[in-house]
């Protein structure tokens, strides 16, 4: 199309590898959209061997990766007439939830003009001349609102409802590499009007159907082409003379026999860490993984390997709200915290994931002090027994390790400097109870290194300071004269104080007073035991007797009084008439 013009190819899906052509180079770079990490922009910068040669090139867009896998032709920008019409870069905008579907394609010219085009308009046109590109300019500038609108057209405003458990309804699942061959993500988006994703379905995908799977689901079937590949690989290990026979026999066997992938399902998150997300509606949910080795599995037949790696981060996306993240804290996957992760590119995101991986606690036990049940990571759990005032909860682990303390889905520090040289196999957490109401925070924690209930010399108790700040907690101490009690003697003294709180605190009716009283005992001030108020047995009120009915006058008396009154009034009128006549009429006449 045009004598003297050459074709310059831009491949949408090439997001990190340079593309070279005769006299030009296309260099892709990736970053998040300014002010909103829900969207990405891939910039394909064009440079020419001879800077003035841009007038000699048509720019052709393909939805492929390179000249070997070009994909489908999208649009051709033809015949630039002057330097201001030469394309210097093509910006392609994506949602992170649909990383292979362009929302907007922007042509940037050397004249610093931006033409923001809807991909479907370009596909429908097929090609056009450079000077007519203005006809396809749909937006003067781009914003989050515009990109949200374009994504809503793509998704039809569908949402995912997140739940805890094994529920799955109309979910599309896909994976995407982050570009460093070390990290990747699973992307879950709705494909129905009532899509639901349960927490058990977040960590594995059936790549044959692009649907999530959970540990209770059967492993996916190995596709036929992959079975044949396995047969040929096995037969190459035999001698050359028998390879053909081997292939023939195994090929028949492979298609008769059902072969399935081995999905290990190594990831699980306790429901405690997911409760703040459950029941909410999201545009999509992304799960980030870290590979053991920085390599990509063989495409198609090796995709199942993506299911067997460690999860580092969950990302919940709702366009009307900031992103929410859940970050892994330990190597075993028992501790997670809600945190804000900020990044402007996949490179920065990969760095964040690397930092999460490096920061994982290797030798730790997770103590969730506001979760009073058996949760993931516990070998055993005991509830508080029959005590009315001091309720004890015991968290048991299979071996002693450094405790990570979690409260309200965040890790907390006990004392200002944290726990030093503390290991625990059992952890006893004490709560106060007054008037039938249990406190929202504990007042005492004992770290038991041995966990056998006998040897207590290495037990480390810490108590509150009657405030809600855990960093103000103190180690339990007691002086016998000038001597600081240690080891078993210190624990024996603590047990006596717990009994004292239990005995004397039973008559304290509210938590505020009980907290003060318990703190005074723990620090050795020994307040006077409170006196129990006498209970007054309520008595049934006496029956109400109505007042006696008033006695009325006899009727004859009432009639007589009325008649007397009438006579009196008439008499007064007559007397007044005579008086008026004598004093007024006579004088006038």
Short description:
By secondary structure, the protein is α+β, with helices and mostly antiparallel strands.
Largest sheet: 9 strands, mixed
What percent of the residues sit in helical stretches (DSSP H or I)? 10-25%
| Overall residue-averaged pLDDT value | 87
Overall number of structural domains? 3
- Count of runs of 4 or more consecutive helical residues: 8
Descriptive notes:
Residues 525-547 are annotated as: Disordered. The chain crosses the membrane at residues 555-581. Residues 525-537 have a biased composition (Basic and acidic residues). There is one protein chain. The protein is of the alpha+beta class. It has 3 domains: 6-153, no CATH class; 160-221 and 260-358, no CATH class; 364-522, no CATH class. The chain is 21% helix and 30% strand. It has 8 helices and 33 strands. Strands 23, 24, 25, 26, 27, 28, 29, 30 and 31 form a 9-stranded mixed beta sheet that branches. The chain has a 6-stranded antiparallel beta sheet with strand order 2-3-4-7-8-9. β32 and β33 form a beta hairpin. α3 (224-235) runs antiparallel to α4 (240-256). The longest helix has 34 residues, at 555-588. The radius of gyration is 41 Å and the shape is extended. The protein starts with 5 loop residues before the first strand and ends with a helix. Mean pLDDT is 87; it is low at 534-538.
């Amino acid at each position: 199309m045009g004598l003297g013009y050459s074709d310059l190819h831009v491949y949408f899906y090439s997001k990190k590898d340079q593309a070279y052509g005769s006299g030009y180079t296309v260099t892709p770079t990736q970053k998040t959209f300014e002010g909103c990490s829900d969207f990405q922009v891939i910039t394909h910068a064009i440079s020419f061997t001879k800077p003035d040669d841009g007038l000699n090139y048509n720019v052709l867009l393909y939805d492929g990766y390179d000249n070997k896998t070009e994909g489908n032709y999208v649009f051709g920008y033809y015949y630039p007439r002057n330097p201001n019409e030469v394309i210097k870069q093509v910006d392609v905008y994506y949602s992170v939830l649909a990383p292979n579907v362009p929302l907007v394609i922007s042509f940037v010219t050397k004249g610093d003009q931006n033409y923001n085009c809807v991909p479907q308009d370009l596909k429908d046109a097929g090609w056009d001349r450079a000077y007519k590109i203005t006809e396809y300019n749909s937006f003067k500038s781009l914003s989050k609102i515009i990109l949200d609108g374009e994504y809503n057209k793509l998704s039809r405003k569908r949402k995912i409802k997140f739940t805890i458990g094994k529920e799955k309804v109309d979910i599309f699942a896909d994976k995407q590499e982050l570009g460093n061959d070390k990290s990747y993500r699973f992307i879950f988006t709705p494909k129905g009007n009532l899509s639901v994703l349960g927490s058990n379905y977040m960590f594995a995908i059936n790549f044959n159907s692009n649907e999530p799977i959970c540990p209770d689901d059967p492993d996916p079937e190995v596709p036929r082409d992959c079975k044949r590949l396995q047969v040929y690989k096995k037969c190459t290990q035999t001698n050359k003379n028998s390879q053909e026979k081997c292939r023939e026999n195994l090929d028949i066997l492979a298609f008769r026999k059902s072969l399935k992938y081995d999905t290990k399902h190594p990831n699980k998150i306790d429901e405690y860490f997911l409760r703040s997300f459950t029941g909410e509606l999201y545009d999509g949910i992304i799960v980030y993984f870290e590979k053991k080795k920085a390599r990509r599995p063989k495409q198609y037949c090796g995709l199942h390997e993506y299911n067997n790696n460690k999860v580092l981060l969950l990302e919940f996306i709702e366009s009307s709200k900031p992103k929410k993240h859940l970050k892994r804290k330990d190597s075993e996957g028992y501790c997670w915290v809600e945190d804000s992760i900020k990044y402007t590119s996949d490179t920065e995101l990969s760095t964040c994931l690397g930092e999460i991986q490096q920061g994982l606690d290797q030798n730790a036990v997770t103590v969730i002090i506001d979760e009073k049940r058996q949760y993931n990571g516990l070998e055993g759990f005991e509830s508080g027994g029959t005590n009315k005032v001091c309720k004890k909860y015991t968290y048991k682990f299979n071996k002693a390790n450094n405790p990570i303390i979690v409260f309200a889905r965040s890790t907390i520090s006990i004392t200002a400097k944290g726990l030093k040289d503390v290991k625990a196999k059992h952890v006893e957490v004490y709560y106060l109870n007054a008037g039938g109401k249990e406190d929202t925070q504990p007042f005492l924690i004992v770290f038991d290194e041995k966990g056998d209930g006998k040897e207590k010399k290495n037990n480390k108790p810490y108590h509150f300071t009657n405030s809600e700040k855990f960093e103000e907690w103190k180690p339990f101490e007691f002086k016998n004269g000038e001597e600081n009690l240690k080891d078993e003697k210190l624990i024996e003294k603590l047990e006596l104080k717990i009994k004292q709180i239990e005995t004397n605190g039973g008559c304290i009716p509210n938590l505020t007073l009980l907290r003060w009283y318990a703190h005074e005992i723990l620090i050795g001030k020994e307040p006077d035991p409170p006196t129990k108020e006498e209970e007054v047995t309520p008595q049934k009120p006496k029956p109400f007797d109505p007042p006696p009915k008033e006695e009325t006058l006899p009727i004859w008396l009432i009639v007589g009084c009325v008649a007397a009154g009438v006579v009196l009034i008439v008499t007064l009128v007559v007397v007044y008439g005579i008086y008026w006549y004598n004093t007024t009429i006579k004088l006038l006449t």
